[in-house]
Amino acid sequence: MIKQLTFFALLLLVISNSLAQSESPYEWDWTKDGIWTGVAIGGTAVGYSLIVNKEDINPEEFARIQNNLQEEIDNINFIDRWAAGNNNEKAGEISDVPFALSFVAPFAMLFDDEINDHTGQYLGMYLESLATTGAMYTITAGLVNRSRPYVYDNSGETGLARRQSGNGQRSFYSGHVAVTATATFYMAKVYSDFNPDASPTGKAFIWGGAAALPAAVGYFRMSAGEHFLTDVALGYLLGAATGILVPELHKKKMDGISIYTTGGQSPLGDDYTAMALRIAF
Predict the structure, then answer these.
(1) What's the whole-number mean pLDDT along residues 210-224?
(2) Has residue 279 been placed in a domain?
């Protein structure tokens, strides 16, 4: 999380007004969006504090799980039950690779001529998206207690200290997947909006990559015993939604288009009322 906050700070230093040469589909307000981003970064810091101070699992709760392990596993919903006891730490290390890649992937879009004319706006919305996801995830993970799958590992491969630690109580939901999905879907959404006439094949490749990267992270996080399927699914959904909706909320209003009611009499003498569309060029 410290690395993420440092990333936010570095990104803020890079953001500046760019000399735009092409038309952007977005609007950016340094005051409103600055407040939004600042509040989101503040929320991330608060959530991180909650995570750091998260208490270890209650000893009585852990004893109940340990003494009735199979019964506790059987009580987990059928969607998640299969992951209980997973403990592949190597998979956890592998998951960090696509996770880290997702942070830098959107910067590749700066090679696009349409986007790099609006670098400040593009990076500002990216930071806003990441900060929004960061705030939602950290606060949720800090407040909600749910044992990670490796807490149910009684094979001896996962040490008691790790199983009982506060870190083991923040399975809900997957922050790795949420952040990865935010970054990749943001990249795909903004590319599509800046390049509406791009080839369908190129767009399919970008959207396919955007969908695959967080899915890969989720697979390895579950294999590592860090999260259940529902944790990954929710992280994916919320991350992708943020990556898409933040740019969408910045889309320019179509001021030249208006819809209004009208009425009159047709050439045949019939009275009518209708909805009219007016487009001003």
Answers:
(1) 96
(2) no
Domain count, the chain: 1
- Residue 71 in any domain: the answer is yes
Which range marks the domain in which residue 58 is found?
A: 2-255
**Omega before residue 191 within 30° of 0, cis:** no
- Range scoring the smallest mean pLDDT among 50-54, 70-74, 112-116, 123-127: 112-116
- Which residues lie closer than 8 Å to 157 by C-beta, 6 or more apart? 87
